[in-house]
Request: fold
Amino acid sequence: MNSQRQESIGIKQALWLYSGAPCEIDPKKPTGQDAAHRAANGKSFDVSKGMLLNGKWTWPGVEPGCRCVSKSVVPGFS
Reply:
């Protein structure tokens, strides 16, 4: 829903922000998802496609257990 809202107002890029909390459903049984999300922290991605993590396209907060968020990149603002 957030990516659709961003696209509707012309935002094309966003930054992936790792929450600092493990991105796992059960931290006692890690899947490797957390390492990929941590590595994506601060990286830019196209809001229409998402980011390629562990061989699949995804957006922050979409995967089960993911607590990541995104920050919109608005052209002309720093």
